[in-house]
Amino acid sequence: MSLSSKLATSATKTREKEILRAHRQKEREAIREGRKTQPYYLKRGEVKKEIEREKTEGMGKRARQKREMRREKREKGREGRDLPRVRRGV
Predict the structure, then answer these.
(1) What is the extent of the structural domain holding 32?
(2) Is 90 among the domain residues?
(3) Separation in Å, CA 12 to CA 5, 26, 27, 33, 46
(4) Looking at residues 70-85, what average pLDDT do you find?
(5) Is the dihedral angle over the CA atoms 16, 21, 53, 72 positive or is it negative?
(6) Is residue 39, in this structure, part of any structural domain at all?
(7) The predicted structure's pLDDT at residue 61
């Protein structure tokens, strides 16, 4: 593993921990105030969605568009693999 990938991984993990810590704090506060009786525990997928949302908020307009275009291109390729060759356009 390269140093840059290790740094990126550690940054992601720390961000996950921060999100979980903040969520737990909000849930504890709600229980203390009596708005809730039981805490809601975030699932891993929800944590990942929150991280992605924060990443896209930090991007500029052009970067978001490029990311969206790449995602659509990947999805189109995946869908094309499921289609018969005649309809795929090959």
Answers:
(1) 3-83
(2) no
(3) 10, 21, 23, 32, 14
(4) 87
(5) positive
(6) yes
(7) 92
